[in-house]
Design goal:
Leucine-rich repeat, LRR (right-handed beta-alpha superhelix), 13-stranded parallel β-sheet, elongated
């Protein structure tokens, strides 16, 4: 009777031990390293002590449910720089406490809402440097607690309306380095908490005047290195909290005098490396919080006398105007009127 009881008590432990040791070798080795135990001695209770697991650079092509079984308290998981072709949803959907997931630099080509079922407490998701070319509506609908989403360096060409639906707590969205040509008017619908939006290094040629209207809390917007020739005059009318605006590296030829009129909190403006040759005399009026304006590497020959003067403009900001074909009169007037607030040295930030 005592021998039978001993066998019954040992059965669960033997089962867990066998399960650990038969997982993918590189995953087993990482779990062993984290727990400082050989797989034969790792029990279910030991697995519950794993809160962070680094599986980067292991050459993994797949991850099964068995590979991550028992890691019920896992909060941070790194799967980056592997060879995953499919998002490992079956391995992840039982990780109810997962907060941060990094899957960048893999070969994932498709994601859907089913992939994120069970990950409702996820706060950070990095899917950059994959092969994702499309995002369907409601793909991230179960990630209501997400704060950070990185989809940079993929092959996205279009952002559909509702693509980020239900991400009401998202604060940082990175879409740089894709091939985005078009944004639908409601591409960012529902992102009421978004603070930072990065769209640098895409192929945008046109922006709908209401595309950023839902982003009431936006503080930083990066549109550098696109193909924008023109911007609607009311493009930023609904973004009063914007502090940093990056427009450099676009073939802009002219901008409306009222383009940034509503941005009373604007601190830094980058409009360098464009084809601009003229700005209206009241372009900066009302912008009392300006700190830095980058207009270097443009085509300014002259500038309106009142462009940087007056009671309706901050007197604290610095202007970078190097590498413009300014005539002697304009150069002298700028230096005389602005003194140490105008810089003619090289300044190459975008």
């Amino acid at each position: 009777m005592h021998k039978l009881l001993l066998v019954l008590l040992l059965l669960p432990i033997v089962s867990v031990q066998a399960d650990i040791c038969t997982r993918q070798t590189k995953i087993v080795e990482q779990i062993e390293e984290d727990l400082k135990l050989p797989c034969q001695k790792i029990s279910d209770s030991e697995l519950k002590k794993v809160f962070r697991l680094d599986l980067q650079d292991l050459g993994l092509e797949t991850i099964s449910k068995k590979d991550l079984a028992g890691l019920v308290n896992l909060e941070t998981l790194f799967l980056s720089r592997n060879h995953l072709k499919v998002f490992p949803s079956s391995a992840l959907n039982h990780l109810r406490k997962l907060r941060s997931l990094s899957v960048y630099d893999n070969d994932i080509s498709k994601i859907s809402y089913q992939d994120f079922e069970g990950l409702s407490y996820l706060k950070s998701l990095d899917l950059s440097s994959n092969k994702i070319c499309d995002i369907e509506k409601d793909t991230f609908k179960d990630l209501g607690q997400l704060h950070y989403l990185d989809l940079s360096q993929n092959c996205l060409e279009k952002i559909k309306s509702g693509a980020f639906n239900k991400l009401r707590h998202l604060e940082f969205l990175v879409l740089s380095g894709n091939k985005i040509v078009f944004l639908e008017s409601r591409s960012f619908e529902g992102l009421s908490s978004l603070i930072n939006l990065e769209l640098t290094s895409n192929k945008l040629r046109y922006l709908n005047s209401i595309v950023f209207n839902d982003l009431k809390k936006l503080e930083e917007l990066a549109l550098s290195l696109n193909d924008l020739v023109w911007l609607p005059s009311d493009l930023f009318a609904k973004n009063p909290l914007l502090k940093r605006l990056y427009l450099g590296g676009n073939p802009l030829r002219n901008v409306s005098e009222t383009l940034i009129r509503s941005l009373k909190n604007l601190e830094d403006l980058y409009m360098n490396y464009t084809k601009l040759s003229y700005l209206g005399s009241t372009f900066f009026h009302g912008l009392y919080n300006l700190r830095m304006v980058f207009l270097n590497n443009n085509q300014f020959v002259t500038v309106p006398v009142d462009l940087f003067k007056g009671d309706n403009i901050s007197n604290q900001f610095t202007i970078f105007l190097s590498s413009n074909p300014l005539d002697d009169f304009a150069r002298e007037e700028l230096i005389k009127g602005l003194r140490d607030r105008v810089q003619v040295g090289e300044k190459n930030s975008l």
